[in-house]
Amino acid sequence: xxxxxxxxxxxxxxxxxxxxxxxxxxxxxxxxxxxxxxxxxxxxxxxxxxxxxxxxxxxxxxxxxxxxxxxxxxxxxxxxxxxxxxxxxxxxxxxxxxxxxxxxxxxxxxxxxxxxxxxxxxxxxxxxxxxxxxxxxxxxxxxxxxxxxxxxxxxxxxxxxxxxxxxxxxxxxxxxxxxxxxxxxxxxxxxxxxxxxxxxxxxxxxxxxxxxxxxxxxxxxxxxxxxxxxxxxxxxxxxxxxxxxxxxxxxxxxxxxxxxxxxxxxxxxxxxxxxxxxxxxxxxxxxxxxxxxxxxxxxxxxxxxxxxxxxxxxxxxxxxxxxxxxxx
Amino acid sequence: xxxxxxxxxxxxxxxxxxxxxxxxxxxxxxxxxxxxxxxxxxxxxxxxxxxxxxxxxxxxxxxxxxxxxxxxxxxxxxxxxxxxxxxxxxxxxxxxxxxxxxxxxxxxxxxxxxxxxxxxxxxxxxxxxxxxxxxxxxxxxxxxxxxxxxxxxxxxxxxxxxxxxxxxxxxxxxxxxxxxxxxxxxxxxxxxxxxxxxxxxxxxxxxxxxxxxxxxxxxxxxxxxxxxxxxxxxxxxxxxxxxxxxxxxxxxxxxxxxxxxxxxxxxxxxxxxxxxxxxxxxxxxxxxxxxxxxxxxxxxxxxxxxxxxxxxxxxxxxxxxxxxxxxx
Lengths: 328, 328
What we know:
Strand order of the largest sheet of chain A: 2-1-3-4-7
Structural class of chain A: alpha/beta
Oligomer: homodimer
Largest interface: A-B, 30 and 30 residues
Helix content of chain A: 40-55%
């Protein structure tokens, strides 16, 4: 009798676990320090999957930035709940494809898919998954393709969010990451979203992006901070995009101090890109155990730890590849 | 004058290197021990890329198997040249997404894209790439999608090759890896290729697959052998698919001896799947430092080192995931 009851308990436990797993919706999550693309892409993929019969919910690894808040309000979208653990769940990654930027317990979850437009980050899975990875300017552009392949209409609000993500990621099509598909997709999304003036929306987004008041230097530094493992060395690259570098002038000393605090956390190098969208260039600040490597990567000399890089606006395309190479 | 001439040499050298790199066509390559999907996919993607304006050529990491030879002859396709080095070249991977199955010097090449339908294998890149990875039964199915997105017509001969790859990979739609898209794609490719009877083509392919005469036991073992790194342990899984297990009966002792020789090359476990396509099951043979792990993975007891697994026909879907889990 005891054996039977223990067997019954086991079966009941297995059933509960099984049902819990099956009933738990798939989680769709963007990278740490989420930007507009990470947040909106999670919302857009969760909606698409749910429409296709797989219940999915968006989550975020952090609060929306002022820019993202503006976009969510403008298009009446709800910020995904902040959740940083995914163990035991089915997970769909958006806007990243590497472990450092994913939830820390990702290895205890089941990756079922990903959308990304960055360099491949070395994820492994036990089973085949779906990966939509293309060298375009924004995950939103790829997700528009996914909706088209699945023949699912993009709701007006989500189209507005995806359009905003494209404008933000491509710096209003000025970034060298921009492809013709980003432009045509943005035009289609604008029609769906009822946006007549794409340029005007872009300016509003970049005004929101440039609102640094009331945020601490460390908060700014971490707002769009990405950590990389480069040949065994920990390298962090933050980026702040703004309409005018003057907006951040009073904070530069505090920002450099914050870089130092961050670097103490085992970093070989911490870089900060202060990108002027209008002048189309970046004032790059660096703290490094070996400034020579950074200078080789940039092809430029640092003076008092910083240098103006005309034409450089893309971390992914104009800064990271050089760093990867210099660190090899 | 000396300085000028050395500068001139440097410029000339840079120009030669630059032009050489630009003029070298992109290489499209399938996995080691290429099967029909690996060979045909390389041909199909190279054609597509060339049509899209990027000159590309297919290569292979080995000679075609008897099955692939039959397919190439039937559809008047040319076997890609065997080439195992890719250093300094742009490379597009087909039918795999991991370093062990890729050319050994892949890290010295530039990965620009990949097509795969297997588990993600942990590749990293310095730049964003295009990755077409979907959980379907065959890379050919994904490549048909690529042609559709690019709006490039599939030539009759290549359509025949892709159809054959789908029939081979899905065991004529009997494998659990088969998806509805594999079936509809096969039907479309059959029309393009002028194949009236898909079943008859499938039988011809599997007859060719089952031609083991004149091949050594080691040759058979390596014909479709995949090596995996499972939590630091080297695990190899070979598979032979045939119409009737009787075809391989006289060779079983030699096959087990060959497994032993192969295992001596640092393997923790070497498995051989003898898959009966008609009976839809696999006689699995195992040599392992820890047979218990293999038994846990299979959910079955080995007797004299082998076991009949009814319903098991897919290495990828029915054997590898269990092994990955058991080795964790």
